[in-house]
Amino acid sequence: MTTKQKAIKIYEQLKKLYPDSECTLYHDGDPWKLLVMARLSAQCTDARVNIVSKTLFEEIPDVYAMAEAPQERVEELVKSCGLYRTKAKSLREMSQQLIDNFDGKVPDDYDSLMSLSGVGSKIANLILGDVFGKGGIVADTHCIRITNRLGLVKSTNQTIVERTLSPIVPKEVQSDFCHMIVDFGRDVCTARNPRCHECPMKENKLCKGN
Ligand code: SF4
After folding, report:
1. Helix residue spans in the chain (DSSP H)
2. What is the mean pLDDT of residues 17-22?
3. Is residue 98 within 6 Å of ligand 1 at its C-beta?
4. Residue 194 alpha carbon, nearest atom of ligand 1
5. What domains are defined for the chain?
6. What is the pLDDT of residues 136-183, one digit of tens each?
């Protein structure tokens, strides 16, 4: 079995486990909101980001309001997400860049997204996949750990994981694949004490167990 065939089999197993898996950041389909929430999620839980964003978007509902918002006020609003000074600064800068360079809209190509303040490949791929349906591997901590355990990847380097998975996971399911991997990493293939004894990957000979 090639790695590509294996990746597809893994995808099929994940789909059985998590047929309704979706992004755990609640963004109402608004690309700018997802961009903001993804930036806030660095070293913070999605649950915390969802709580903080609710209040944030009530007061600062769009790209124009964010670009004009005082730094101190944004800091206060995002404080509980951690790294709040840096995050507030990049949210304001990124919003101003969107207004100056992209007519206030979130661009739909990788290089333009990567030109925005605070945006790295993880966020760019999340936006490309979830908002624009163009696919994108979001190599977060769950994705890196699990794809290594499953033998799809042999590196913990985020860029290498993205580049390795990108050609073997079909583009149209990349976004879905990454969301399901997060669910799988939270309740079966956990960082510590993975539940190998009841894992369908082991049962279907796609993983030897950890
Ligand atoms: S068998 Fe264990 S290590 Fe392998 S994917 Fe399942 S839970 Fe993770």
Report:
1. 3-17, 31-40, 46-59, 63-68, 71-78, 84-102, 110-114, 121-130, 141-149, 158-165, 174-187, 200-203
2. 93
3. no
4. 7
5. 3-21+136-203 (1.10.1670.10), 31-130 (1.10.340.30)
6. 999 999 999 999 999 999 999 999 999 999 999 999 999 999 999 999
